[in-house]
Amino acid sequence: MIKVSVLYTNSETVEFNHEYYSNTHIPMVQSLVGSALKKVEVEKGLGGRVPGERAPFVTIANLYFDSIEEFQNSFGPHAEKFAADVPNYSNVDGIIQISELV
User: Which CATH number fits the domain 2-100, given the four candidates 2.60.40.1080, 3.30.70.100, 3.40.50.300, 3.20.20.110?
Assistant: First the structure.
């Protein structure tokens, strides 16, 4: 199984609409990717290493697939649509990391 993490960096100028992301964007991804997507987790950053420190990421989404090929085949055809939706919830693009669960 693999995990595709989409990490949205945090800063003083970042804008992020968590409600839209969780209630509109993620359901759109789930609908278009279909059964290849096994599980989704959305994390809202609350803080950093020490009290009062800003979280390094405003949001992290973790999407789980059986393989890289399943991810590429199900996500790839819709990537432009997903990217076009970003301005509806944030002024920053996500950083994508694909990891193998060990």
Answer: 3.30.70.100
* Total H helices, total E strands in the chain: 4, 4
Determine the Cα–Cα distance for residues 21 and 50; give it in Å rounded to an integer.
27
Q: Note the pLDDT tens digit of each residue in 32-88.
A: 999 999 999 999 999 999 999 999 999 999 999 999 999 999 999 999 999 999 999
pTM given for the model: 0.93
Neighbouring-strand partners of residue 64: 3, 39
**What is the residue extent of each domain of the chain?**
2-100
SS3 59: strand
d(CA 94, CA 83): 9
CA distances from 32 to 56, 70, 86 (A): 29, 13, 16
User: Which sign does the torsion angle of CA 55, 57, 59, 64 carry?
Assistant: negative
